[in-house]
Amino acid sequence: MGKIIAIANQKGGVGKTTTSINLAASLGVLEKKVLLIDADPQANATSGIGIDVEAVDIGTYQLLEHSNSAREAIIPTGTPNLDIIPAHIDLVAIEIELVDKEAREYMLKKALQEIKDDYDFILIDCAPSLGLLTLNALTAADAVIIPIQCEYFALEGLGKLLNTIKSVQKIHNPDLDIEGLLLTMYDSRLRLSNQVVEEVQRHFNNMVFQTIIQRNVRLSEAPSYGESIINYDASSKGASNYLSLAKEIINKNS
Questions:
Q1: Which positions ≥6 away from 136 have C-beta within 8 Å?
Q2: How far apart are CA 244 and CA 230, in angstroms?
Q3: What is the rounded distance in angstroms from the CA atom of residue 91 to the CA atom of residue 6?
Q4: Strand partners, 235
Q5: What secondary structure does DSSP assign to 176-217, as a single string?
Q6: How far, in Å, CA of 132 to CA of 224, rounded?
Q7: 37 vs 5: CA distance, rounded Å
Q8: What is the pLDDT of residue 160?
């Protein structure tokens, strides 16, 4: 039975998509069968893994509308054991279109039921908002990873996200767990980075992943080539960080 993990934070630029792509690729390389779902209208996870966004006919939009099945939307990627359900800019319209639908928060959950057992892990790259798209992802998920940037405003908005998770647990998905808080864009030379790490670890203790994702130029370059860091530069610090995170998640779930 596959585990569905949403990667969510309403703040933009914290490393959600970078984490989605590279964690998915790392789990794939470690011989887990993985599906990545792009649930962000910006479709960065789709282009970042080498899929032409303009050529997407069936993706997350059709999945949420239930006009196509999940199996019809799956595309294999150039990374071992990794498939993707891509996104397209048309996903922008879905929030408005779902508003009047009955059980609108459960559209993704229903759509994924038929394929859940086909994968070890299903990762959902969420949009940087707490709208209906993210709500669908949290309702469908078994757990959520929250990336936190090692910068001044890191904890701003985290309370709001945790409250949203609590209300999803209460109303839509009592089984939703927090898989962990992931510290990203860490620079050991900066005092501020170290202060953020200490503060997050002090506040949240065991909820924080041991793996910290360091700032890495290769990690920033990889998406422009449509590749995960594993394919782009397997010897880089970024690749070793994400492999370490993948191992931590596998150990936690074994």
A1: 39, 64, 98, 104, 105, 106, 107, 108, 109
A2: 12
A3: 17
A4: none
A5: -EEEEEEEESB-TT-HHHHHHHHHHHHHHGGGB-S---B--H
A6: 29
A7: 10
A8: 85
- Global model pTM greater than 0.90: yes
Rg value, the chain, Cα: 17
Cα 6 to Cα 147: distance, rounded to the nearest angstrom: 11
Per-residue pLDDT, 95: 84
Name beta bridge partners: 177.
143
Walking along the chain (254 residues) 10 residues at a time, the average pLDDT comes out as 92 92 97 97 95 93 93 94 94 86 92 96 94 94 95 82 92 95 92 90 92 94 94 94 97 92
List, as one string, the DSSP characters of 65-106: HTSS-HHHH-EE-SSTTEEEE---GGGGGHHHHHTTSTTGGG
Pairwise CA distance, residues 155 & 54, whole Å: 36
Q: What is the pLDDT of residue 118?
A: 96
